[in-house]
Amino acid sequence: MTRFHPDLHASARFIPRFTWSPTLVRTMNFLARVRGVPRPPRAPGLVIEDVQLPATATGPALRVRVYRPALRTEPVPAMLWMHGGGFLFGTPEFDEVGNIETARELGILIAAVDYRLAPRHPFPAPLDDCYAALAWLHANADNLNVLPGRLAVGGSSAGAGLAAGLALMARDRGLPLAFQLLLYPMLDDRTVLRTDLRDDDLRLWDTASNRYGWSAYLGKPPGSADVSPYAAPARCAHLAGLPPAWMGVGTYDLFHDEDLDYARRLTEAGVPCEVQVVEAAYHGFDAVSRAVAVSRAFRASYVAALGRALRGAP
Hints:
This protein has 314 residues and is an alpha/beta fold. It has helices spanning 9-14, 22-35, 96-106, 125-139, 141-144, 158-173, 207-218, 256-268, 285-288, 293-311; strands at 46-53, 62-69, 76-82, 109-113, 146-156, 179-183, 245-252, 273-282. Helix 8 (256-268) links the parallel strand 7 (245-252) and strand 8 (273-282). The chain is globular. The chain has one domain: Rossmann fold. The mean pLDDT is 94. The two termini are 36 Å apart. An 8-stranded mixed sheet has the order 1-2-4-3-5-6-7-8, with helices on both faces. The longest helix has 19 residues, at 293-311. 47% of the residues are buried. Helix 4 (125-139) crosses helix 6.
């Protein structure tokens, strides 16, 4: 345990070592269906509501949970947020506490999309849902009191991988974006092929979970020759023209190497990319241990970067 960051010793010790299996994922998703969609909470200064987007040619009706400033009369920036869960599980409410804090702190609208999940809905279904939500934000900017030129995409883990893929798709389809916020993103299916990775220092997401997550999302073996760069953004050969990015990852995160390589390639392509590497931190540490100093500093860094990108320093 002394290998982990001092603030994370306790949580690293008590997090069970496990792999996300098909049975475990089915159980998680069954419980989520039984629980149903939780009612939007009350949050001073915000209006929180679920919006149902109509079905499109590429997908069914889609739920988006919107967090917007209650008293702003002028248009505000916005961010489309994608939750994590390895492409396999999760809901927008996973990140509700953080989305409430960020929307309130920066005075922005945040829309969290309830995208379809693998393996029942492999690529491109989840990304199609995210693009539909982004297109809805653009098309309804006036009704939502949003600045269409100040839209960001963001997410954590697999959600950050979707955000990166969405940024590529938006660039290629001519939909403007101002920023991409990438928390320990899941970017490269080819990491599954590495034989030098060990699970000893990994928490929440190990090598076997990664193989299952990518296999379910791609609908084919990870590392296949014909994987779309929209599915695995690290596969994209040309990164120029993307919006500026902030990327954060811990040194004990399975995605550490693929993330830093992507950040390096963004910079080489002329895309500003601020990088925060947290020494001896495991995957998702900030969500597990929100109150400790290292997690608070991590959050403060990306909220400040988001604020600078969308409306000036908070």
